[in-house]
Design a protein that fits this description.
The chain is mainly α. It contains 9 helices and no strands. The chain is elongated.
């Protein structure tokens, strides 16, 4: 744990985060049992890599960048750690496709951005960044990205059947297929 971060400060940062997100402390889990945001970041990067043919990279890159920044801020403010090497090590084994690796390399820019300038205390620098990129804003960015993806993806096959037309088939062909399958 960096010398400038103490347990009481971490606990108060966690309570402040709960307050900002309007989560009553009684409904929150212990800070020590909290799943780090970096875990979600890794899974989100994988989702973006799979969906990259449907949604352009700039849309995803903005979301991933904000998610990564919040992950790093959380690492210090909630868990008391800030090791970019640690974060890179946690990201690297999970990211295997060329697209995922490309995004991870681009995110290095944001990791460097989060390093405080000379003479500026890490805590003050991250508080400034937190003010510019609040956590609740990230929630909206992620929801927008997922809704955008859902609009671009083909509906699930069962929904297409329910609507009476499968992709690549005419309405008549779909009706015949449904009859052969014994579907209404």
């Amino acid at each position: 744990m960096p010398p400038e971060v103490h347990k009481n400060e971490l606990d108060s940062n966690y309570l402040l985060m709960l307050q900002n997100l309007k989560i009553p402390p009684a409904n929150a889990c212990s800070r020590r049992r909290l799943l780090p945001l970096i875990n979600i970041t890794v899974e989100f990067i994988k989702l973006c890599a799979m969906a990259s043919s449907k949604v352009p990279q700039p849309c995803w890159f903005n979301t991933i960048s904000q998610l990564l920044m919040q992950s790093i801020i959380e690492e210090l403010r909630i868990f008391g750690e800030l090791s970019t090497q640690n974060l890179k090590a946690r990201l690297a084994p999970e990211l295997v496709s060329p697209r995922e690796l490309e995004w991870a390399q681009n995110c290095d820019t944001y990791i460097n951005y989060l390093q405080p300038p000379p003479g500026v205390h890490t805590k003050h620098h991250l508080e400034d960044i937190s003010d510019r990129f609040p956590l609740f804003q990230l929630e909206g960015v992620i929801i927008d990205a997922i809704v955008n993806l859902m609009k671009k993806l083909d509906p699930p096959v069962l929904v297409q059947l329910e609507r009476g037309k499968l992709r690549g088939m005419t309405v008549l062909e779909t009706r015949r297929l449904k009859r052969r399958l014994g579907l209404p």
